[in-house]
Amino acid sequence: MSDKPQVSIEKELRKSYLEYSLSVIIGRAIPDARDGLKPVHRRIMFAQHELANNYNRPHKKSARIVGDVIGKYHPHGDSAVYDALVRMAQDFSMRDPLVDGQGNFGSVDGDAPAAMRYTEVRMSRLAQEFLNDLDKDAVDFRPNYDNTLLEPSVLPTKVPNLLLNGSSGIAVGMATKIPPHNLGELCGALQLLLDNPQCSVDDLMEFVKGPDFPTYGFVYAGKALSDAYHTGRGTVKVRGRVELEERKKGAQSIVIKEIPFALNKSSLVEKIAALVNDRKIDGIADLRDESDRNGIRIVIDLKRGVIADIVINSLYKFTSLETSFGINMLAVAENRPQLLTLKTALGHFVDHRREVVIRRTRFDLEKAQARAHILEGLQIAIDNIDAVVALIRASASPEEARLSLMRAFSLSEVQAKAILEMRLQRLTGLQREELQNEYNELLGKIEFFRSVLDNPEVLRNELKRELREIRETFATPRRTEVLTEALTGIDIEDLIPDEEVVITLSRRGYMKRTNLENYQQQKRGGKGITALLISEGDYVQEFLTTTNHQYLCLFTNRGRMLQLKAHQVPDGSRTAKGVHINNILPLEEGEWVTTVLALREFADDKYFLFVTRRGMVKCSAASLYARCRKTGIMAVGLRKDDELVAVRPIRMDSHIVLATADGLAIRFACGDLRPLGRVATGVKGIALRRKDCVVAVVVLKEPDQSTEIMSISANGYGKRTSVDLYRLQSRGGKGVANFKVTAKTGKVLGAMPVRDNDGLVLLTSASKVVRIGVDEVRSMGRATQGVMLVRLDGGACVMGFDRVDEGGQILKADDENVSQIVVDGFTDMDRGDAN
């Protein structure tokens, strides 16, 4: 039986596993909170420093660096060291690379780097700032793995690398994942922390907007990022950047120019191709990778008529083009792993820099004092040169001379040795002056060094000065765009700006969306610019100005309502034909859209006014139309010989003016109408003459003397008339004269309320757009034919119009949530009435 004491296997395993865990955590996988480096990265940089492999020196073979690292400091496999070296040189992995590589260091496609015998490296210029002052006792050194050499336990870096380049690693029972950030923002936050140590994380977030990935893209900040910075853990959404490009004949291409951080580009392309083959994404005609050394470019050609936003939405939903980045800011602080907040992470760096500067200053002070002490002795010798020379000549040996000088002039041993080693050239006048200047300069440095050590304010200013220098030298503009609200799901509106657009719909059902900036204001009577190309026999029926994020309520001639967002209408150029509406909405045979409203919300206190061609009107609460099925809902009941002309948002204190094609109009109060249900038919609004029909409805809210009604005819004539000239009547009457209709003017096309500072946009059947100011049109009486607004070519007529302000902004209808349709009436050539 053995005399060795028995050991509990449970205790031994626990002890051994704990030691192994600590070794992995402290010595391999988790970065240090002070310099933001893992041991392997720190040893790579120190080995290059020992080899003088600086940024301004020639590159050295990677194998040379790897050999020194594993032979002197890091007793692990060469592949592990080389992989770490490669990553430090990849501009798509590091926000600010610490190694300047020459050769093949891999790609964002996941291509492996060349072997270490083929590649060459040297430290980047930024990496030099990690190693400055290393020879000034600024940090502690420790023995290497075999106790033959010394290596730094931490680097005296001036760069907040933990947050600058981030880190990721998996240890035993814990992991870290810190995103990269922008150096300029970090320096601003550090200066705030130095000025106000009591500042909050929210104060620091005024400078640190969010992660700044080397692969650009978008990051959704909001509460998720705030939680990560306050607690050390959180998850943020990261998206690539997608742009639309126009191809020939109105086709479009989706171009992916930026991808999420750490995403393999080739895997992304393969995933998209697989989704197309599996029919999870429809409408893609071609997929190709046109990326080169200048950047990422993945081109997805769409089939004609496909809504690009739907494809983009599918890409974000089914691929890693949108991904979650889990933040876990774990680092080694005070020799143990700690979960850091934004403030504590920056605070550890500030504490480290403060200690480095103090130790460096103390080293410089001692060195300066030692040199000043020697200079004092040299000055004594020069002032007493004859006695010194005589004493030295009389001495039998250097040791006797040193002792004699120390006794005769009260010198220290160091001063006496310096005098004995002094050259005769120091006795010249010029050399004596240089010694005095050097001594005076040293006294100034000594005073500064003492102030840094004794005065916390001076020390703080020194730290801020270093941060300013780092920022001015190395800071670069932000790459990743930060969006302030994090997403809970896929929503394409976050990538679509809520800008002003024009929605056009032709009689044959071709629809498109165009930016309002494409239409420029012109003088009255101009010929206009080409708006869109339409086929023979077709014309524009609806011409609507709105914004991308508003709801479009599309009412059909059969009284149905369908709904979609404005940005879901396919985008097209000013001259594009558009996409047929049957590709967007489920319309039945013989059904077409007659009226479009743009709304932001369906408020409970708002109402819709429905007007039919035969003069029927109905008022219904807008909230009844908030829920709309994909197949649409019934909006109003219609008689067999009637159809819906227009829908308007109203309030019950408003007045209504109905205008007819033969130039009559009636004005009555909304209070004459009681709210009815969604499928009700309504009541009579105006008594029509034979063959006459309603072409426009104008809603007046608290009209004043500056409000007028603009009436426009099919042949391009128009006039302004004060609303005071339209007397208030009861609904159901025949009305009063509104427009003098002649063969020259043509039938009345529509009417709308205007003011002097409004703009007017007119669209003709010849696909021309004219934009003029309302103040260019004279104000006239009711029974007049007006003036020519647009000069028409033979056979052409005005098809639609809208009003905008002088800056191109959309004018609201009855309230701040609703934008009116453009076409207040239309001349239907196919059906033959009103012409």
UniProtKB/TrEMBL annotation:
Keywords for the protein's UniProt record, in alphabetical order: ATP-binding, Cytoplasm, DNA-binding, Isomerase, Nucleotide-binding, Topoisomerase
Family annotation (InterPro entries): GyrA, GyrA/parC_rep, Gyrase/topoIV_suA_C, Topo_IIA-like_dom_sf, Topo_IIA_A/C_ab, Topo_IIA_A_a_sf, Topo_IIA_dom_A, Type_II_DNA_Topoisomerases
Cellular compartments per GO CC: chromosome; cytoplasm; DNA topoisomerase type II (double strand cut, ATP-hydrolyzing) complex
Topo IIA-type catalytic domain location: 30-495
Catalytic residues (UniProt): 118
EC number(s) reported in the record: 5.6.2.2
A Pfam family matched in the record: DNA_gyraseA_C
Reaction equation(s) it catalyzes: ATP-dependent breakage, passage and rejoining of double-stranded DNA
Gene Ontology terms: biological process: DNA topological change; DNA-templated DNA replication
Any one GO MF annotation of this record: DNA negative supercoiling activity
Location of this chain's protein in the cell: Cytoplasm
Family indicated by similarity: Belongs to the type II topoisomerase GyrA/ParC subunit family.
Quaternary organization: Heterotetramer, composed of two GyrA and two GyrB chains. In the heterotetramer, GyrA contains the active site tyrosine that forms a transient covalent intermediate with DNA, while GyrB binds cofactors and catalyzes ATP hydrolysis. Heterotetramer composed of ParC and ParE.
Entries under HAMAP family matching the protein: GyrA
Remaining remarks: Few gyrases are as efficient as E.coli at forming negative supercoils. Not all organisms have 2 type II topoisomerases; in organisms with a single type II topoisomerase this enzyme also has to decatenate newly replicated chromosomes.
Function: A type II topoisomerase that negatively supercoils closed circular double-stranded (ds) DNA in an ATP-dependent manner to modulate DNA topology and maintain chromosomes in an underwound state. Negative supercoiling favors strand separation, and DNA replication, transcription, recombination and repair, all of which involve strand separation. Also able to catalyze the interconversion of other topological isomers of dsDNA rings, including catenanes and knotted rings. Type II topoisomerases break and join 2 DNA strands simultaneously in an ATP-dependent manner.
Protein name from the UniProt record: DNA gyrase subunit A
Organism: Candidatus Desulfovibrio trichonymphae
Gene for this chain: gyrA
